[in-house]
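[audit] Reproducing an earlier prediction to check determinism. Same input, same settings, fresh worker. If the tokens differ from the archived copy the diff job will pick it up downstream; this log only records the rerun itself.
[audit] input (220 residues):
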Amino acid sequence: MKKYILTGLLVWLPLAITIWVLMHVAGTLDGVFGTLVVAAQTVLPESARPLLQQLREVPGLSVIIVVTALWLTGVAVTNMAGQWLLNQSNRMFSNIPIVKSIYTSVKQVSDTLFSSSGQAFRQAVLVQYPRAGSYTIAFVTGKPNGEVADNLPADMLTLYVPTTPNPTSGFMLMMPRADVVELQMSVDEALKYIISMGVVAPPAAAATGTLPPVTPTTQS
């Protein structure tokens, strides 16, 4: 009985969690859409209020509106006029005190993560963390540059060490390339491995590097 119940749970649990996440996102969008409708009712003529109220009660309409708005925005910025408007808006937000710090930082991160030509995580690697002899999976994000690179030894890599099971939080490390072991697994496979807390392991492959030797500690 226990075996079959656990087997059934493993079948339904991923689907249930997926539906719950989608419903949570849709509920959040519905709440934002409802707030906008209430604000519009105070501005538009009274004759338009019943129609707005009916639209507010349509389930899932906010998701359709957001997807349509994103698609129209993407289409608009692919031409010269849209690019000009986008550049002007970026310039405007970049000149507003306080706002420019937040907007510029978020824009740089989003461009790196979501750009089709960008590579936020270039490669999955193995590093010793948080102590010598203890290993974890990390992702190469680039190389140190600027003032930071001037104060570091040569041939260093910038790594992101995600937490499990939530890889959206983690730690940024700068380590010598010699201390990093390259892995053949893809970034997607490494993320699955991390999210599953090591349960969903990628297929075995020949290693492209060797484990760096552990430096023994001396005790006084």
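[audit] rerun output stored. Observation attached for the diff report: The longest strand covers residues 135-142.
[audit] end
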